Amino acid sequence: MSQPPDEIRCQGLGVSEGIVIGQVLRMHPGTEQVYHWKIKPAEVETELERFRTAVAQAASQVRSLRQQAEERFGKDHAYIFDAHQLLLEDEKLIGDIESYITAERVNAEWAIKVIGDRILYLYSQIKDDYLRERRSDVEDVMQRILDALSGVSRKNHQLSEDAIIVAQDLLPSAVADLDLEHARALATDSGGWTSHTAILARGIGMPAVIGLRDFYRRAKTGDTIIVDSKRNQVILHPSAATLKAYEAETAAQAKVRLRSDRKHRGPVCTADGVAVTLRANVEVPFEFDWVEFYGASGVGLYRSEFLLAPRGGFVSEDEQCRAYEAIARVAGKDGAVIRLFDLGGDNLREQFQEPEKNPALGLRAIRFVLAHEEIMRAQVRAIMRAAASGVLKIVLPMVADSSDVQRAKSIIEEEAGKLRAAGEKFAEVSIGAMIEVPSAVLMADSIARLVDFFELGTNDLVQYTLAVDRGNDAVADWFHTLHPAVLRSIDQSLRAAERAGIPAIVCGEMASTPAYVVLLVGLGATDLSMTPAAIPRVRRAIAGINASEAKAIVDECLRCDTAEAVESLVRERFIERWPQLFDASSLPKPKPPE
Amino acid sequence: MVERLLITKGRLGLHARAAAKLVRVVSGFESQVLLRRADGGVTADAKSILSVLMLAANQGTELHATADGADEEQAMNAIEEFFAAGFGELEPGTSL
After folding, report:
1. How many DSSP H helices and E strands does chain A contain?
2. What angle do CA A343, B60, A313 make, to 5 degrees?
3. What residues contact A574, with CB distance under 8 A and at least 6 apart?
4. Cα distance between residue A443 and residue B6, in whole Å
5. Residues A494 and A517 in one domain
6. CB of A54 within 8 A of CB of A93?
7. In a domain? residue A255
8. Which residues of B are catalytic?
């Protein structure tokens, strides 16, 4: 028997969350070699004609891609192709190539290569990161003309079930072209956080690790590969032990496959009759249809910062208003919770402020919008105007205590007053607070008196409670969603909401993972918001349990001293009580030895 | 020929989308429109997206704009408006 190839680990930058195990599908960037030949003076006109035909063909492809991108990702992302269209019409670019063909009497391919390289060189001199990255747009357009010249059209690649796209660089149009039903993840050698590939991958929720440098040449189509965005790495030919560890980790997140359940809509009841509302988290228009598809009770969390084309500036109040109206329509009578822009920290930081030493603890979320009041005023006005024609609520991200809430509320009230005075059509909206930092948990009672509802952001709550960065492998041993401190924080927050008589929605990864959901229900959570595709599995888990039994287990967990104790308790009790719902692979495991 | 001094206001400068918009605006006029970096750098043809992107005009970049042609006044007014409006995109700190 031949020796299996050694495991290869490559570090990159995880730009879109998730872990996927699958098979490599290498994507060629197209024609890799460009040949050079001389043409006769008499052939110049024919060569120019050949070039112009290719440009026209490329332009028509871009037009249809643009339309496709607009439908899939929304208008904000389609503008990439607007720039491509203009490049194909660009007198300077097209004119320079034509002059080169005429003056040097060379084939069109060579002229494109020469002029293209000159432009790319000039781009590489640009100091601004974002502007410099636009070189990929030029490359994309050049490649498209070259393809048209060689008569090859870049068509959809036929993908296997679990294909992981490995490429040197994925041009934006290649991402827009991907068969989303089958492609599971992306791994590329180049690219940065703000590259369009990264933006689109995040937009469609496809795990991606980029900036892997020289990974492409090592991978062969069909190789087994693990893309682990959480740890910023990919693993080629994983060893049996690595594979086993990852299979355990990915089992808990289950497979995200489109599976509608038309029979089941609205709230779900536990076997002993506790009703739990299931809402959807949405970000991009691409996901809007899924609210209805998966039978969600409206939108529990709309992360409004996705409205901002990444690094593309703010959208106007009117544009925002239309976007919120669209969300309200999607959400229907159950309404949508709009989280105010959660900016600063790690997302979009570089464009607004100097890099902070410690962005996670810096000017972000509610602090950011309070510091940039005009942004907040425009946003809340847009939300209240949109609320005239639908059910919308506002949630304030990352409040530390009641003073953040007070300040935000008085701004919202002022804007409502202005709208009223101006005779605008609007509606006042309920205001909630995200409970996601320890101070908010400790001060939950006083916050609860000021707001209409709570929303527990469990992802941040885990990180801030344990002071552990989930993306940092060095502290992975300290990251435990099921830490008793986390469970107690959730418990305290839910109790505070109960005492104040306000509802509490729980969102974040915990709300989309069946094993964690059982504990949340045990803690008394009756309103969950999750990524739409998780709704069927969460519904199944809740329908199969007794809330009273879940409560008994969670009461034991709350008395545990360590995360390990909670985890083993959960494993034991869940398999004992609900063997039809849980097996070892769907429950938290002790961290395997690295 | 008319000439004005313009300042790139948006925090992101003349990024891809703004550049695309500018080219669309300017292409509606007959006049030739040039943008020259006041710091002595590149000059760009405002009807060419490639050339506009090459200006690498980030926030605060001063640009000398010249318009030459039958509709130079209208063209210049349109450009000035586009710059004043922050490229039609809401930016932090500006009034809405």
Report:
1. 23, 17
2. 30
3. A515, A518, A553, A581, A582, A587
4. 50
5. yes
6. no
7. no
8. 15
Question: Among all residues of chain B, which has the CA nearest to that of A77?
Answer: B17
Q: Of B23, B90, B95, which to mutate for an interface test with A (greatest number of A Cβ within 10 Å)?
A: B90
Is residue A507 annotated as part of the catalytic site, yes or no? yes
Q: Is A452 a domain residue?
A: yes
Cα–Cα distance for residue pair A328/A330, rounded to 1 Å: 5
When divided into structural domains, chain B yields a total of 1
**Could you read off the pLDDT of A468-517 as tens digits, one per residue?**
886 666 777 788 889 999 999 999 999 999 999 999 999 987 898 888 99
When CB atoms are compared, the residue of B12, B48, B87 closest to A351 is B12
Burial A477-510 (b: 16+ CB within 10 A, else e): eebbbbbbbbbbbbbbbbbbbeebebebbbbbbb
pLDDT band, residue A157 (cuts 50/70/90): very low
A160 and A89 within one domain? no
DSSP class per residue in B5-45:
EEE--STT-S-HHHHHHHHHHHHTSSSEEEEEETTS--EEE
Q: For chain A, first and last CA: distance in Å?
A: 27
Which has the higher per-residue pLDDT, A223 or B73? B73
Give the contacts of A208 (CB within 8 A, at least 6 positions apart): A14, A15, A16, A185, A186, A187, A188, A197, A198, A201, A202, A227, A229
pLDDT digits (tens, 9 = 90+) for A198-232: 666 765 668 889 888 888 878 877 788 999 988 88
Q: Measured between alpha carbons, how far is A592 from B9 in angstroms, rounded to an integer? A: 53
Residue A427, pLDDT score: 96
In a shared domain, residues A370 and A473: yes
* d(CA B17, nearest CA chain A) in Å: 6
A302 forms beta bridges with A282, A338
DSSP string, A457-504: EHHHHHHHHHT--TT-GGGGGG--TT-HHHHHHHHHHHHHHHHHT--E
Strands B2-7 and A527-530: unpaired
Calpha distance A421→A211 (Å, rounded): 53
